[in-house]
């Protein structure tokens, strides 16, 4: 608990944290607004082929996240990479020599903050998207709530994944590059040749598990499995990070 | 009490710390001395569990650092005053440290007052702090847990003369309270004034572990010799070196000799027929003793681990 309080103190006393939060909210509002405009335009223009009909607002939120998630990921990976760039990792390890306890505390703070931010983003996105959608938007209370909570859970888990990866790689740029590859590039490449086995592998990757969780489509596995897969990836990243912190000189 | 047992750290081919065995005892200021690259900082990082030793052990109060649960109550350390998040204020930095070890917030104000950082300075982002203020902040962090062991790596770096005097007084008073105080430096004059005890390191090995006064006088007083005849002076230097003394030549007409005596050099000069314009014992200095030590790589057997 003391370590968690220390990590929270460190996170909130750096202004860049609040800029990142603000940036992600602005980005979410902009993306949700834009996607809502597309839906409304598609339904009202002369071309019937792009009609989307009435769209649940949750779909707009989930689609917006494709971009917005990287601002939130930055929060998770900066929890650790900034310690290496500034050298404060040595003070941190002096205060908390147990690498496992330190990383768990960082994970708890990251997960709590990104989950809360996810709820905020969901709310902000819905607030912008629903009036723009107007008659073309549906805001079912239960469905929207489910989408927002799933979105927040997804952000919390990939935030922790980013933290663990950052502990291994130590560089923010490198970590973000690897995350981009794992979340987007690799699954797309795996699906390219349309081979069943490769589809299966792609489905197991965290980015795809996130998509299935957010879509809630139950294909190829139910959302609970998607959530567990994501949690598994986050746990593996944390364990790898702990091993790296333990073995390598700080 | 810091206990090092055959502590060894290798980075690839290079051995930074080589089977270092020494006890740093309480109640005195121990100067950790050695040229740059001798392994002082690496040893301190090993003590703090930041680097993993290749072999051997470093213990604080009998336990390895990584096993300490609230380490700030056991040992306080200042390693690198520049290792701060540039955007975080000094006070927030200390708040985070205090929180991690369950130290109440008011203790932060106490240590800030102790090191002489006022509210305005403590509220500044770290990037706006001078190196001297950074050092004071680092020492504030070391004092947070009121630990029985303190360790400062080159604490006088970047300090003005007032700051240097302050560090000296602080170290002395901490030691007088019965704490173990270890201070590394490459500034020998500073160590001579501050440290009661010296641990001298050369190329990762222990060269001396003895009271400061003994290290200074142990290698013999220095003697200054001047003569108008360079050839005669050279002959004198050869004889002295052969007899085991350390001879430095400064100006062409001048030698500085350690490991011999005024009497012995005078007799030798008479024997060789070298006219002398000056033959005088120099004031003993740590700097000279240190040069003699590292030149010979003599081990100091006396007093090792004693008087704790």
Task: Tell me what the structure shows.
The complex is a heterodimer of chains A (250) and B (308). Chain A is an all-alpha fold. Chain A has one domain. Chain A is 83% helix and 2% strand. Chain A has a two-stranded parallel ribbon. Chain B is α/β, with parallel strands linked by helices. Chain B has two domains: 209 residues, Rossmann fold (3-Layer(aba) Sandwich); 63 residues, 2-Layer Sandwich (Alpha-Beta Plaits), CATH 3.30.70.790. Chain B is built from eleven helices and 14 strands. Chain B has a six-stranded mixed sheet, sandwiched between helices. In chain B, helix 8 crosses helix 11 and helix 9 packs across helix 10. In chain B, 47% of the residues are buried. The C terminus of chain B is likely disordered. Classes of the chains: A mainly alpha (250), B alpha/beta (308). The interface between A and B is medium-sized, with 27 and 34 residues.
Helical content class of chain B: 25-40%
> Uncertain spans of chain B, ≥5 residues at pLDDT below 50?
297-308
Cα radius of gyration of chain A in angstroms:
19 Å
Largest β-sheet summary of chain B:
6 strands, mixed
Number of helices of chain A: 10
Helical fraction of chain A equals: over 70%
Instruction: Please state the average pLDDT score of chain B.
Output: 89
Task: Tell me the layout of helices and strands.
The complex is a heterodimer of chains A (250) and B (308).
Chain A: H1 2-12, H2 15-44, E1 55-56, H3 57-86, H4 88-95, H5 99-133, E2 137-138, H6 141-169, H7 172-191, H8 196-204, H9 206-215, H10 223-247
Parallel strand pairs in A: 1-2
Helix pairs in contact in A: 1-5, 2-3, 2-5, 3-4, 3-5, 3-6, 3-7, 5-6, 5-10, 6-7, 6-9, 6-10, 7-8, 9-10
Chain B: E1 2-11, E2 14-24, E3 28-33, H1 40-47, E4 55-60, E5 63-64, E6 75-78, H2 90-100, H3 106-115, H4 119-123, H5 131-143, E7 149-153, H6 161-176, E8 180-185, H7 188-194, E9 197-202, E10 205-211, H8 212-218, E11 223-226, H9 230-242, E12 246-249, E13 254-258, H10 262-272, E14 278-281, H11 286-296
Parallel strand pairs in B: 3-8, 3-9, 6-7, 7-8
Antiparallel strand pairs in B: 1-2, 1-4, 4-5, 9-10, 11-13, 11-14, 12-13
Helix pairs in contact in B: 2-3, 2-5, 3-5, 8-11, 9-10
């Amino acid at each position: 608990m003391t370590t968690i309080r220390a990590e929270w103190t460190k996170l909130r006393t750096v202004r860049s944290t609040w800029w990142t939060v603000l940036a992600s909210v602005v980005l979410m509002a902009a993306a949700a607004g834009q996607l809502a405009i597309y839906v409304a335009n598609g339904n009202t223009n002369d071309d019937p082929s792009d009609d989307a009909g009435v769209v649940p607002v949750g779909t707009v939120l989930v689609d917006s996240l494709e971009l917005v998630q990287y601002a939130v990921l930055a929060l998770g990976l900066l929890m650790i990479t900034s310690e290496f760039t500034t050298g404060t990792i040595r003070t941190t390890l002096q205060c908390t020599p147990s690498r496992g306890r330190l990383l768990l505390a960082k994970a708890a703070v990251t997960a709590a903050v990104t989950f809360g931010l996810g709820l905020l983003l969901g709310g902000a996105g819905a607030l912008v998207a629903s009036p723009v959608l107007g008659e073309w938007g549906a805001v079912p209370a239960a469905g929207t709530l489910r989408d927002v909570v799933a979105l927040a859970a997804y952000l919390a888990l990939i935030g922790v994944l980013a933290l663990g990866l950052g502990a291994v790689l130590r560089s923010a740029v490198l970590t973000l590059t690897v995350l981009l590859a794992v979340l987007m590039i690799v699954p797309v490449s795996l699906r390219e040749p349309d081979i069943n086995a490769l589809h299966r592998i792609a489905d197991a990757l965290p980015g795809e598990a996130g998509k299935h969780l957010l879509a809630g489509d139950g294909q190829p596995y139910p959302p609970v499995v998607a959530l567990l897969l994501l949690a598994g990836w986050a746990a593996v990243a944390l364990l790898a990070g702990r091993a790296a912190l333990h073995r390598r000189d700080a | 009490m810091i206990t090092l047992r055959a502590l060894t750290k290798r980075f690839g081919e290079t051995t930074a710390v080589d089977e270092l065995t020494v006890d740093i005892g309480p109640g005195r200021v121990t100067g950790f001395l050695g040229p740059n690259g001798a392994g002082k900082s690496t040893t301190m990082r090993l003590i703090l569990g930041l680097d993993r030793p290749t072999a051997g052990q470093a213990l604080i109060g009998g336990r390895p650092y990584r096993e300490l649960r609230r380490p700030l109550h056991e040992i306080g350390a200042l390693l690198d005053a520049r290792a701060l998040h540039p955007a975080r204020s000094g006070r927030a930095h200390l708040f985070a440290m205090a929180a991690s070890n369950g130290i109440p917030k008011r203790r932060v104000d106490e240590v800030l007052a102790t090191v002489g950082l006022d509210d305005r300075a403590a509220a500044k982002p770290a990037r706006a702090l001078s190196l001297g203020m950074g050092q004071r902040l680092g020492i504030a962090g070391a004092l947070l847990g009121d630990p029985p062991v303190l360790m400062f790596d080159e604490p006088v770096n970047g300090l003005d003369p007032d700051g240097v005097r302050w560090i000296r007084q602080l170290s002395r008073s901490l030691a007088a309270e019965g704490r173990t105080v270890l201070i590394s430096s490459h500034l020998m004059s500073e160590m001579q004034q501050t440290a009661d005890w010296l641990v001298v390191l050369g190329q990762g090995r222990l060269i001396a572990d003895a009271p400061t006064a003994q290290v200074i006088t142990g290698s013999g007083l220095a003697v200054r010799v001047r003569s108008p005849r360079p050839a005669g002076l050279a002959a004198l230097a050869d004889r002295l070196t052969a007899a085991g003394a350390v001879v430095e030549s400064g100006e062409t007409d001048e030698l500085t000799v350690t490991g011999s005596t005024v009497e012995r050099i005078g007799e030798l000069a008479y024997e060789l027929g070298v006219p002398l314009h000056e033959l005088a014992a120099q004031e003993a200095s740590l700097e000279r003793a240190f040069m003699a030590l590292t030149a010979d790589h003599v081990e100091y057997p006396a007093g090792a681990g004693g008087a704790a």
